[in-house]
Design brief:
Layout lengths: L1 H22 L5 H13 L11 H19 L2 H6 L1 H26 L5 H10 L19 H31 L4 H35 L5 H21 L4 H11 L10 H42 L5 H26 L16 H12 L5 H8 L14 H26 L5 H25 L6 H21 L5 H28 L5 H23 L7 H31 L7 H26 L7 H19 L4 H31 L5 H20 L2
């Protein structure tokens, strides 16, 4: 029971951290989670129990490393391999050696092997720790690729170095020859096992999909289960489970291109969502545990009369300084052979080279892997005695993690300020236009007399999207346009509220028609409120409160409607509102509401509250939506054509995904851009199926 309560408390803190981070975006989420962990540690009712250290290696490191390897941009990884590998291997072992020797020299009470273990644990970096700063700081593609590749590979080198150091500390003996032999076997054995497991998994999933046996449940469960199986299998063969999981993540793909149709697309969306939640929960749990560990480690150190508090704090500052200095020098020296692309000369002392070195230095804070490794330090050595200075070692590692996170949090936005979001928006918009244009060309080639009535509306919708994107691409301020769009939704909501109040107050109207009008208005209000909740305007405290109120209002509307329908059917099934009649009233109300917004936009174009071109752009969107609604008034015709149009839509999405894959393979777009384009198509596929 205490373990269950502990899990609930930690997960609750992780959820709370996600809410708090939205109100203080300049503070990275890991720092918030560490603070919450400290608060939990001081609660008198919080359960305090010891967890098995080996559990951290399997439960946290295996899935996190798999996910990191699985989602990495492999093309960029290979391009930056000559930079990331020296940092991942050389810098990791260099940090282990320098930190270990320095710590043992200034604090001899810590055995050399234990000091090396701390240095090895401080080798791995945590790119996830600074992901929450993406809106405040930015990296170049090369810097991002190097940091990601380093974070992936130095996890493995750091874990291997840590395990050998702990083995020497526990047994009290160390053989260089045996260590080298074990390292080679562990390294290459782990890589080989991971690759073989990845190839087998790809073959199995391809076969299962062809036979029609794959379901969303089996696919997601297997994807979650396999990293643990690979890790435990490798450990059973006494080879590196970490490298096996990394190699497996780089090899397996699960048909993530999504060309297999809407079912595969839906599965990919669910898979991404599950892994996103799991990754956030695991990373958050580790940082919450870090906060929980800080008071205990501090209390144990403070009560230890053999350790001076000032000395302990000084050691933390010294280790942090050494880690940062080693990293800066290593990055700077690795950049020495590279030449300036404009002058062709080496530029070691130029401000830009120093700035890039500082970005790479502070962009590699310590985090999840470091703390997980430190938690695996055994409580006793081979003789049965307590592991020397275990609490102090964990406290030092925790202090270095906090300091490097603070430096990343406050230094990176100053050194690498965020790029103009509108510029990035314009670039992705151009790519989207090209991809949509190719889709239209492919659909046009498939038009014949039998499918013309179904394909032409889909082609027209694509052309409308292209026209809107082209109009947005020049002199476009996404924030200002978004403000206008949200204001227009509020105008639409005000109009529908007015129609709803009039319907409720009109006692002369036929009761059946009055109920139809009220039902249509309430349904449309739900649609508008849902659109407002998902609007991407800049988040403020007021908007957060408004969203909460909107959700409560929407839930109340849905509950009232459900009770009303149930009561009507229970009282008399024949008196229940007919959906076809509601359709007429709903479309009529929507058209009237759009007409009111169109009139308002014409008026705003004469004023100076909004830019003329933004009003014209949104006006075109509303006019197009109004024309589409007006063409749907014939329910019989719409019902006859709708299935064929839906089939063409699904076909067009498959065409889009194929084109995206072709653009990626030809080098026209990057993997991250392809991922964004695919995500849009996946969502549209699921929405299209929801309409059926």
């Amino acid at each position: 029971m205490p373990i269950f309560e502990l899990i609930l408390c930690i997960l609750g803190a992780v959820v709370l951290s996600s809410f708090i981070s939205r109100f203080i975006p300049k503070i990275s989420t890991p720092l918030v989670q560490i603070a919450l962990g400290v608060v939990l540690a001081f609660l008198p009712t919080f359960p305090h129990i010891k967890l098995d250290p080996e559990l951290f290696m399997v439960l946290f490191i295996a899935p996190l490393l798999y996910l990191e390897a699985h989602e990495i941009d492999k093309r960029m990884l290979f391009k930056t391999l000559k930079f990331s590998l020296p940092m991942a291997i050389g810098l990791a072992f260099g940090t282990m050696a320098v930190v270990g020797l320095m710590l043992h020299a200034v604090w001899p009470v810590i055995p050399l092997a234990a000091a090396f273990a701390l240095g090895a644990a401080l080798g791995p970096t945590d790119a996830v720790a600074v992901s929450s700063l993406s809106s405040e700081a930015s990296f170049t593609k090369q810097q991002s690729g190097i940091l990601t590749g380093e974070s992936l590979f130095n996890d493995a080198s750091g874990v291997i170095g840590f395990q050998f150091s702990i083995l020497a500390a526990v047994t009290g003996s160390f053989s260089m020859a045996n260590a080298t032999k074990d390292f080679v076997i562990s390294f290459f054995g782990g890589v080989a096992l991971g690759i073989v497991a990845g190839v087998i998994a790809n073959g199995v999933f391809t076969l299962v999909r062809r036979l029609g046996w794959e379901t969303m449940t089996t696919r997601i469960l297997m994807e979650l289960f396999l990293p643990f199986l690979v890790f435990l299998g490798a450990e059973g063969f006494h080879i590196s489970g970490i490298l096996a999981v990394v190699a497996f993540g780089l090899t397996v793909h699960f048909d993530l291109n999504g060309i297999g149709g809407p079912n595969v697309a839906r599965t990919n969306i669910v898979s991404n969502s599950v892994w996103t939640v799991l990754s956030f929960a695991l990373n958050g749990t580790v940082f919450i545990l870090l906060g929980l560990q800080l008071p205990d480690a501090m209390r144990a150190s403070w009560l230890n009369h053999n350790v001076r508090n000032v000395e302990l704090v000084g050691i933390i500052l010294l280790v942090t300084l050494v880690v940062i200095a080693i990293r800066f020098l290593w990055v700077w020296l690795i950049a020495a052979p590279t030449r300036d692309p404009e002058s062709g000369k080496r530029a070691l002392l130029k401000p830009r080279s120093l700035r890039d070195a500082m970005v790479m230095t502070f962009g590699g804070p310590k985090g999840t892997i470091t703390l997980s490794l430190m938690f695996t330090i055994p409580y006793t050595v081979a003789s049965g005695a307590a592991f020397p200075m275990r609490d102090e070692l964990i406290f030092i590692a925790a202090g270095v993690i906090v300091l490097t996170l603070l430096l990343a949090n406050f230094m990176l936005p100053l050194i690498a300020p965020a790029e103009d979001t509108d510029k990035e928006f314009g670039k992705l918009t151009e790519i989207t236009i090209e991809e949509l244009t190719r889709t239209v060309q492919e659909l046009t080639n498939r038009v014949n007399d039998d499918n013309r009535h179904a394909i032409l509306p889909v082609i027209d919708s694509y052309n409308n999207r292209i026209a809107r994107l082209r109009q947005r691409i020049s002199m476009f301020d996404s924030q200002e346009f978004e403000t206008l769009r949200i204001d227009a939704l509020h105008w639409e909501k005000e109009y529908v509220h007015k129609r709803l109040d009039e319907a409720r107050a009109d006692t002369q109207m036929d009761k059946h028609h009055r109920e139809l009008q009220i039902e249509a208005c309430e349904r449309m209000l739900d649609q508008i409120m849902n659109a407002l909740r998902h609007a991407s305007n800049k988040k403020t405290h007021y908007r957060a409160v408004s969203q909460i109120r909107g959700r409560v209002h929407g839930l109340r509307h849905q509950l009232i409607m459900a009770v009303r329908r149930a009561h009507s059917k229970f009282r008399n099934s024949d008196s229940a509102l007919n959906e076809n009649e509601i359709y007429y009233y709903l479309r009529s109300t929507q058209i009237s509401a759009l007409d009111s917004v169109i009139t308002r936009l014409y008026q705003e174009m004469q004023g100076d509250t909004y830019k003329h071109e933004y009003c014209a752009l949104l006006l075109r969107d509303y006019q197009r939506a109004r024309a589409e609604l007006a063409s749907r008034n014939d329910i019989k015709t719409a019902a006859k054509i709708a299935p064929q149009i839906s089939e063409v839509k699904h076909e067009s999405y498959s065409i889009e995904l194929s084109i995206i894959q072709e653009m990626l393979e030809s080098g026209e777009i990057s993997r991250s851009q392809a991922k964004q384009l695919r995500s849009n198509v996946y969502v549209m596929q699921v929405d299209a199926e929801a309409e059926l």
